[in-house]
Amino acid sequence: MENVESTGQVLVALCALGIDPLTDQRFIKGGNTVIDGIMKYRRPDGGFIHSYTYDEENLSAKPDQSNSIASEQTLYALTAYYRYLVGYRSLYDFRPEMMTEFKEKIAQLNQDIIKLKNSGNQKISTIKLLFERYMAVPIEERCYVYSYKYLAEMMSDANLSNTSEYLAAAMNITEKGNGAVTDLFNTGSGNYEDYLFTDRDYQDYKSIPDHPSTAYYPQIIVLLGKISNAQNAEEYPGVKEDLEAKKDLCGSHTGKDRRPQ
After folding, report:
1. Which of 70, 191, 219, 224 could bridge 50 with an S-S bond, Cβ 3.0-4.6 Å?
2. How much is the pTM?
């Protein structure tokens, strides 16, 4: 059965692989992209339906009414595409963003590999230099060298030894961390020179009770990310420390909730 959620998952996967669904002809059928396939489920109220076909296994999903689960999954699928467009980490990569300079080096490497692939003049010396640049990228970040496939093919055609490690071997290289809160619409990505903690943020902070339940955890994390990067943090003394304490309180509640009964 065709539905918006499965189409959204395709969009998330393409973005994680560095494939632009609006330009890659492999994923454009009859002039329609994956985005078109998602937007056809949009209702006049702005929400999304699960499917235009009645689903006997999903009785709460009406073919003529917006559905909360369908709308939520569409939101994060479109967020995945936005993150891809502006150069953020992929949707499920919860590490802090790369520094802008390092991100630009990876982007330039991707461009240079594609340029050599399309040049028709693939000199062995140039391939070797590109491979050296690839190997200089920390292994835990090489998944963002989306054009590596073409580099590996050129090396194979030139009978060059490929000594790169399997990326799966480095999946556990980041063993600690609580994820990262990224300002979705901060296209500076990693540049907080003009970021301010506002009076509205402070009011949101004041609305959190002294002993918050786990329902407040997302709000605490967002505000903690803001105050930690704000240039005017000194105007709100004690806020960061209090948020960190409340975050720990929520974490302890979460740990209790997860224990078997």
Report:
1. 70
2. 0.64
